[in-house]
Task: inverse folding
């Protein structure tokens, strides 16, 4: 990444991390969606800005598409879901808030620990961002595990994906545009499919709380 | 050209089926059967060329080597039998009023897309395309797992989507870490260039990247403790889909792990680190399967846990290396065929008994004489009874481990014996005894629910008795490729 703009990129990375962190803490699905929007916006800006600064049209396109899908399409889909099933949807966690904060702290410390020091040569000029992106990955995984609502699990997966995209951007991996499009296409199909499943779950269980999904254990 | 056609054909078939009116069921069935036969023919036609040249390229992204060819043959073989059986199975379900013509069209369109994604995963030499393809297998099968629209099926499909998406994203992270290694960053497009750059990678960074790959793709392989989705998905999907999931998809995911293992071993200078990890996860899978198999109440879950056991055995073989890798590849082939036979027979049992609960099933040998013999025979094959092929592969695999890892091999042998007793207990209760009075006696008159199974059983017997030289050479070369990379 560009040295003269390093602080700008790091600032966007911090926004993405804070969004991932707060996703684990806030109550209410609409707040979760807003945080996801914010995180995705930061990711899109990183990609577009890098594309402009590097003169890489492919990266610019990927950034624009990311914005279109993650900041426009996905929130529109999810808002529709929340409007339809909002009354039953909750965003509580299995662990209490103090325990959740403790685990999050542990995960962030792990991301900054010596364990991942061997990855330093991947981005010697953006070491802070590398650790921060690994922290986004861990914190997002925790959201998937700790969230009781199907909606939290979906946002957890998408936040994890954002963390990986940021990591790839900061270490400077560039795949041909066709491959980037392939990954984005997979994500789009994934969003459409989970939307359909959310509807199916609600129709069959009258709830989006994953604790209600116990037909398999009762068999 | 042949390779491109082999990969693209199921996609074209899926698109064609979607465009057809749902009422044209016979045309859809004919398309599925023709595509299955064409795929098998194309895969077999490609084999001599791959054996002669070592690698066949269709483009910079699509090419296969001996290892990819081996997996492609497994997909084509299992895909052929499962396609034919699916036609008969869905006809029976339509006749029973369980599904209508629209659902048949939906099933076959997704079925072809699932096959396409697997062919794509093994037919590419680009790690990112492979990831896209494996992710596509998750997306195409989600609606097949929830096919019956029951709450338990939806729940199984949800678990499948979330756990596999999580796993595959970790797999993507591992993949990107490999591609981000400073020496690889410039222009890596395939495994060859990644392997060429591997010796200059930082060993600790490679270890971290491989752990992400193993945990990520290992979730899709069904290695314990990442296996939670597998018994649910396999037990809720229609039986032919369970056969494809168990017989092929798990192997495709293991293929991805082994591709990265080759790069990691070259970077680390030996196969100790990756081997030990595979041995650990293999043993854990064996242990969990051997304990849980005893308390199973559902025969499709029983088969699913058996798949976890066998993926564990394969992981052990690849972890042992040398002869173990050859044995594990042999095991992969025999397991794919025998497990497909078991799941397809289980489909016939379900069609007759309308239940997957073991307590509701008895006297299968009386009620369904041919299916009963095939199911019981399938059990003997999968359990590794001589003279069936899995006996040979297990024997070779354990022989490979006994020298360097005597304790691991001894415990593995004990666990395999435990699985046998657990499986035997359930299978005898299911096969023997008297069927309930409400159960109709005699095989179905639908030949497509029997003939593919008989042909598959005969193929397994033939391959156990006489292994074709070209197939033996393919497995040997694929094993050598895996070992040479180590």
Result:
């Amino acid at each position: 990444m560009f040295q003269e703009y390093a602080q700008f990129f790091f600032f966007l990375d911090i926004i993405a991390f804070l969004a991932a962190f707060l996703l684990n803490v806030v109550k209410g699905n609409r707040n979760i969606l807003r945080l996801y929007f914010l995180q995705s916006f930061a990711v899109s800006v990183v990609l577009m800005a890098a594309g402009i600064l590097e003169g890489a049209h492919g990266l610019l396109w990927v950034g624009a598409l990311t914005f279109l899908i993650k900041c426009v399409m996905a929130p529109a889909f999810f808002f529709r879901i929340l409007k339809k099933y909002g009354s039953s949807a909750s965003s509580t966690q299995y662990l209490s808030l103090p325990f959740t904060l403790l685990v999050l702290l542990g995960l962030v410390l792990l991301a900054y620990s010596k364990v991942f020091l061997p990855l330093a040569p991947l981005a010697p000029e953006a070491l802070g961002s590398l650790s921060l992106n690994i922290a986004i990955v861990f914190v997002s995984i925790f959201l998937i595990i700790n969230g009781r609502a199907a909606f939290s699990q979906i946002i957890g997966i998408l936040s994890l994906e954002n963390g990986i995209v940021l990591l790839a951007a900061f270490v400077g991996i560039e795949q041909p545009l066709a491959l980037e499009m392939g990954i984005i296409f997979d994500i789009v199909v994934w969003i459409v499919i989970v939307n359909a499943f959310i509807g199916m779950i609600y129709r069959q269980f009258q709830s989006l709380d994953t604790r209600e999904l116990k037909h398999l254990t009762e068999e | 050209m042949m390779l491109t056609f082999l990969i693209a054909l199921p996609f074209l078939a899926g698109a064609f089926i979607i465009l057809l009116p749902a009422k044209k069921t016979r045309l859809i069935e004919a398309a599925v059967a023709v595509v299955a036969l064409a795929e098998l023919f194309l895969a077999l036609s490609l084999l001599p060329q791959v054996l002669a040249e070592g690698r066949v390229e269709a483009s910079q992204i699509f090419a296969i080597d001996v290892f990819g060819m081996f997996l492609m043959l497994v997909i084509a073989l299992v895909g052929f039998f499962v396609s034919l059986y699916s036609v008969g199975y869905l006809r029976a379900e339509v006749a029973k009023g369980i599904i209508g013509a629209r659902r048949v069209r939906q099933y076959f369109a997704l079925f072809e897309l699932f096959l396409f994604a697997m062919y794509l995963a093994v037919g590419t030499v680009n790690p990112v395309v492979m990831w896209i393809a494996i992710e596509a297998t998750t997306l195409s099968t989600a609606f097949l797992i929830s096919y019956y629209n029951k709450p338990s099926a939806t729940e199984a499909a949800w678990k499948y989507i979330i756990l596999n998406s999580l796993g595959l994203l970790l797999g993507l992270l591992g993949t990107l870490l490999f591609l981000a290694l400073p020496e690889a960053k410039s222009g890596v497009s395939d495994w060859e260039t990644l392997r060429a750059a591997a010796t200059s990678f930082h060993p600790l960074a490679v270890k971290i990247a491989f752990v992400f790959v193993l945990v990520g793709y290992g979730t899709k392989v069904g290695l314990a403790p990442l296996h939670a989705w597998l018994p649910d998905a396999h037990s809720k999907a229609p039986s032919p889909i369970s056969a494809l999931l168990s017989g092929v998809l798990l192997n495709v995911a293991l293929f991805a792990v082994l591709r990265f293992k080759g790069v990691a071993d070259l970077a680390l200078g030996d196969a100790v680190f990756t081997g030990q990890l595979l041995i650990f996860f293999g043993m854990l899978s064996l242990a969990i399967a051997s304990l849980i198999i005893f308390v199973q109440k559902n025969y499709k879950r029983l088969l699913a846990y058996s798949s976890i056991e066998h993926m564990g055995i394969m992981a052990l073989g690849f972890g042992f290396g040398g002869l173990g890798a050859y044995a594990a590849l042999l095991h992969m082939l025999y397991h794919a065929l025998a497990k497909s036979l078991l799941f397809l027979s289980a489909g016939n049992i379900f069609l007759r008994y309308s239940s997957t609960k073991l307590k509701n099933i008895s006297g299968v040998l009386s009620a369904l004489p041919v299916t009963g013999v095939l199911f019981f025979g399938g059990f003997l094959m999968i359990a590794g009874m001589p003279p069936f092929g899995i006996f040979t592969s297990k024997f070779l695999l354990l022989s490979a481990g006994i020298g360097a890892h005597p304790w691991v091999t001894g415990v593995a042998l004990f666990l395999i014996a435990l699985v046998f007793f657990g499986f035997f207990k359930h299978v005898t209760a299911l096969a023997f005894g008297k069927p309930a009075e409400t159960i109709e006696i005699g095989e179905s008159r639908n030949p497509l629910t029997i003939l593919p199974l008989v042909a598959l059983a005969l193929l397994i017997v033939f391959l156990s008795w006489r292994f074709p030289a070209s197939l033996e050479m393919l497995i040997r070369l694929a094993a050598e490729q895996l070992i040479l990379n180590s």
